[in-house]
Amino acid sequence: MKHSFIPWLLLGWIGFFLMPWYLLEDGFWSFVWLTDGYPSDLYYAPAILQGILGDKLWLLPLALPLIAPLRLISLQKNDPRYSRYLIFSGAFGLIYLMSQGFAIGISGWQFVGLDTLFGELEQQQYGLGYGAMLCGLSFLILLTTGLAATGFLKGDVFVTGSIGLIVALVGLFVFFPVSQVLISAFMNNDGVFAPTAFFGKLFSDNIWSLSCLSDGYTCGTAWNSLTLALLTATITTLLGLSFALVVTRTGFRWKKFLRLLTVLPIITPPFVIGLALILLFGRSGVVTEIVADVFNIEPGRWIYGMPGVFFAQVLSFTPISFLVLIGVVEGVSPSMEEASQTLRADRWHTFVNVSLPLMRPGLANAFLLAFIESLADFGNPMVLGGDFDVLSTEIFFAIVGAQNDQGYAAVLAIILLFFTLSAFFLQRHWIGKKSYTTVTGKADSGTYMGLNHGMKLACYMTALPWAALTIVIYGMIMFGGFVQNWGYDNSFTFQHYQDAFSIGWGEFGVIWEGAAWDSLWTTLSISAIAAPFTAIVGLLTAYLLVRQQFKWKSAFEFGTMLSFAIPGTVIGISYILAFNVPPLELTGTGVILIICFVFRNMPVGVRGGIAAMSQLDKSLDEASLTLGANSLMTFRRIILPLLRPAIIAALVYSFVRAITSVSAVIFLVSADHNMATSYIIGLVENGEYGIAIAYCSVLILVMLTTIIGINVFVGERRLRRNVSVSASTTSSSNSGPSLKEKHA
């Protein structure tokens, strides 16, 4: 009889008996002990040797939950003892592992009173490593397998294990670090619990002032952020829909180029877009000087403040809306549009009454993502904000500025989280419980309904000028890498690229002489590792939210969005507070950057997956299960191939954001793991704008190449044989004459 828990139990044995229990001095990825043997210091040894030969006896009880399940090999799965043993083993192992990890640190007991109960502890404990990680995973799967054996979630081991794994990961890498920062909101500057200080900061005039409505001064940061986020989300959603309609519902010749062009703004560090806008529209900008000469007006400074930040955010976040909406627009069934036209509805009424309502999940998710991105954006307000203060920049200055008020930063983060959660619940209410299914197991060979003349003209007039502006801005960026001093001395030079990316030849081969190579290789490797993990976790979460029914699903969905709601600045600080000491000692490593990127960008995969999966009929799953496939095979063979747009969106966005992220990276980089954005900011601070722009240009080309490769590797989703666009009022696939022709 096959028991599904046995491979996971073996994994726990490997962690406990073979793998080093604590982090190695050479870092998390070091395997030096495998080749050099065990040194005299048992710091490198597995848990069993730490407990027997060393002085860490508290590790030995972890052997109990690894031995107890052996009794189950001779039992049937329907035996009540089967589930009880697994649940006990998994729960005891997890609770004990976490308890001993947090109770003992590098200076002994970590909590007051433990020395009274257990006596003085002279031993110390370092950050947990491979052995603890494998044992923890083993205990978790044993627990979820036991829950499935009781009939939980219809006894589906894959679904139960997936929910348990995601809950554990989100709890460990989202809720735990964020809680470290939020707790400080109730502390005064001396670290003493003071709830009155919290309410004093919460209702500060700097946050809620409405003086801009009366005397002309700026409003509080909360109102500034909320207004900016609402405007940005609305405009980016409309622009994203226009781009999606041009690509899918018109005969526009340069569709592939337009699709690629819409991705450009998200593959550039934010401050570079801000700098390009300043050189175009600033007081001495190219466009500003031309307009001033033609109309004989005084050059203004409108680019600094809310107009400039709003302009930059719309330019930066429209691609997010497009990436979410393109799959949803493609997923609308042509047969439904043809049925509407057969009933004499014209293309405008068909679009408004049939197509647009079916796009509602995509529109809601695009709006939500743009809203959250605007609230959490740090780079654009930093460059173009001027006197216009927003929550994200105020949080940054509260932490690293002269005031050094971590409690005030935590209060601002709570307000930002409140805005985000409000948008989240309003979005859920707007979508409601209606069905948006358009992709079923039945054949669908209709043609997409083309846009009528007015809609086509509106989409062209909206999308194409915006695309032209994007080309101009990126032309300015690429141009800046080939001039001596951008905006002042525009003489041609290759010196910036030579300083950053020169290559030499030595006795042993290629020598990467350029100053930027080290940070580039680090950035690409970390981003390449983080991207697939982000897509896997995000799409698996979307599958559980859309396809499975379980208790506390709303809380589960909220937890997956929390990391996206908190600004990167707070995420960076929270990771330092949570992971700088045992049991999870990760600061200064590449692992902490990977974890940060995965759980910071995971909501994009979740929202894109939910929008795309809402259109897939559940009969597809049921047919697969009826034919004997389990949930894992159904997810892998049926669902994933139909989610290619969502997979591309998750991979592209997570890879790009890992490269271009600024706010969280500033706090998490180290000398051994210096990311590109941190390196570029250093160049800008030193006034080396040419090298910084040259570096950005190389990053843009690298990311463009990667995006093209991801699209080719994942492939194109084929929902129907015919993907052409119908230009007539009635579909060309109808075999008979139109109603008007019959009447004539």
From TrEMBL:
Record's subcellular location: Cell membrane
Family membership: Belongs to the binding-protein-dependent transport system permease family.
Taxonomic classification: Bacteria, Pseudomonadati, Pseudomonadota, Gammaproteobacteria, Oceanospirillales
Alphabetical UniProt keywords: Membrane, Transmembrane, Transmembrane helix, Transport
Start and end residues of each ABC transmembrane type-1 domain: 222-427, 520-712
Gene3D superfamilies found in the cross-reference section: MetI-like (1.10.3720.10)
Pfam families on file: BPD_transp_1
UniProt-listed PROSITE patterns: ABC_TM1 (PS50928)
Protein name: Iron ABC transporter permease
Transmembrane intervals: 5-23, 85-109, 129-153, 165-187, 226-248, 260-282, 302-329, 350-372, 407-426, 457-483, 524-546, 558-578, 590-610, 646-669, 689-714
Source organism: Marinomonas maritima
Location (main, coarse): membrane
Membrane topology: Multi-pass membrane protein
